[in-house]
């Protein structure tokens, strides 16, 4: 993947069981973390798992640990970036644009939504 999904992007889950059946398809959330080596992303509010952590004590003497729910990573192919104009999932493309900053012209590679053509 050529950086099509980045941290902070608003994405929608496009595969798996629907929300009525207990899944996450159709749910939108921000990307918390991108794991490039395994092609996975962690999305806020999606794919919760229960994690058991060992009970210990902090420096102040308070107990830490127990059962907590955290977001688990899902594969990049199961999410799509949300178009900023239509609020629907779209594919991502790249285009080269000329940007002028302080009188200096630069060529910049820009990600854009394929449905509306808006830059992301």
How many strands?
10
Alpha-carbon distance between the two ends: 17 Å
- The proportion of strand residues reads over 45%
Number of helices: 0
Q: Mind telling me the C-alpha Rg?
A: 19 Å
In the predicted model, the low-confidence regions spanning at least 5 consecutive residues are none
Q: Mind summarizing the main beta sheet?
A: 6 strands, antiparallel
The overall pLDDT, averaged over residues, is 87
Order of helices and strands: EEEEEEEEEE
- CA-based shape: flat
Write out the strand line-up for the largest beta sheet, numbering strands in chain order.
6-3-2-1-7-8
What share of the residues lie within helices? under 10%
Task: Label the structural class.
Answer: mainly beta
How would you describe the overall organization of this protein?
The strands form 3 sheets. The chain has a 6-stranded antiparallel beta sheet, with no helix packed on it. A two-stranded antiparallel sheet has the order 4-5. It is about 0% helix and about 50% strand. The protein is an all-beta fold. It is built from no helices and 10 strands.
At a glance:
Strand 7 and strand 8 form a beta hairpin.
What distinguishing features does this structure have?
10 strands, 0% helix, mainly beta, 120 residues, flat, two-stranded antiparallel sheet, 6-stranded antiparallel beta sheet
Q: Which secondary structure elements does this structure contain, and how are they paired or packed?
A:
Layout: E1 10-13, E2 28-35, E3 40-43, E4 48-57, E5 63-71, E6 74-75, E7 79-82, E8 89-90, E9 92-101, E10 104-113
Antiparallel strand pairs: 1-2, 1-7, 2-3, 3-6, 4-5, 7-8, 9-10
């Amino acid at each position: 993947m050529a950086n099509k999904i980045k941290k902070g992007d608003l994405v929608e889950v496009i595969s798996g069981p629907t929300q009525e059946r207990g899944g996450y398809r159709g749910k939108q959330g921000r990307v918390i973390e991108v794991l490039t080596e395994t092609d996975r992303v962690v999305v806020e509010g999606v794919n919760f798992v229960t994690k058991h952590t060992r009970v210990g004590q902090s420096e102040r003497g308070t107990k830490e640990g127990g059962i907590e729910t955290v977001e688990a990573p899902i594969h990049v192919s199961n999410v799509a970036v949300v178009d900023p104009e239509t609020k629907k999932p779209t594919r991502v493309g790249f285009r080269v644009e000329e940007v002028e900053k302080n009188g200096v012209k630069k060529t910049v590679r820009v990600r854009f939504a394929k449905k509306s053509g808006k830059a992301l």
